[in-house]
Amino acid sequence: MTMAENKFLKEAIKQGLRMQHRFLAEPVLARTGKGYMKSEGVATLQRIKAGMKKSRSA
Amino acid sequence: MAGLVKNWLQIVPWEAVVSINAALCEARKALHKPTSDGYAPAKELWERNRSRKLSLPEVFQIGFQCHRLAPFCNYNGNTFVTIIRTLLNDVLKGLPADKAHILRSIAGHIVAGTATDIERKQLDSILAAIGK
To answer: What is the dihedral of CA A13, B13, B80, B77, to 10 degrees?
Structure first.
């Protein structure tokens, strides 16, 4: 693998492990035609928007 | 924006897809093994599209199709969602943080097979805005 491919691989594994709690191990989509991904909720987006608002008003 | 149509999958050889699934399975002590029916068609689909210039909706669709084909025994969803979300990193750098979060989230939902019609419409409007 090239350096760029390796860098991507490391980043993807890091990201994948970070959100692994949102997935089920078994191949749900293949079996049922309906996927599964646990909602992250709106807290992250609210935090981002609050941060943007704060930096705009500063 | 011309940058949105490119060889998105060039940087992800199939062996990287396998390595990502292996790492995710290892973390949860799940079996990492190719499936007898899904592995070959998913690999073929992935490799066939690696040299192609693709739009973002096409990339999301390939991620979804590979997920549906289930090339691995476990964690197909996380494998392809994480690949597509990581591929978006460069595009997202140029967007406001809230739009970047929404685009990343919608991309994940499309690949996971959980996207709603509202999210698909939202995706169209975000991509149109990026393209201006």
So the answer is: -80
* Distance from C-alpha of A16 to C-alpha of B1, rounded to nearest angstrom: 28
Q: How confident is the model at residue B2 (pLDDT cuts 50, 70, 90)?
A: very low
pLDDT digits (tens, 9 = 90+) for B44-61: 999 999 999 999 999 999
Q: How many CB pairs under 8 A join A and B?
A: 116
Identify the CA nearest to B106 among candidates B91, B82, B121, B123: B123
Contact B80, B111 (CB under 8 A): yes
Quote the CA–CA distance of B1 and A11 in Å, as a whole number: 25
CA separation for the pair B99, B22 (Å, rounded): 32
DSSP one-letter code for B3:
G
List residues bridging with B72 in a β-sheet: B34
Closest CB from B20, B72, B112 relative to A37? B112
Residue indicated by tokens 């199709």: B65
The answer to whether the CB of A52 falls within 8 A of the CB of B97 is yes
ipTM of the shown complex: 0.90
* Disruptive mutation site among A3, A9, A38 for chain B (greatest number of B CBs within 10 Å): A9
Q: How far apart are CA B48 and CA B58, in angstroms?
A: 13
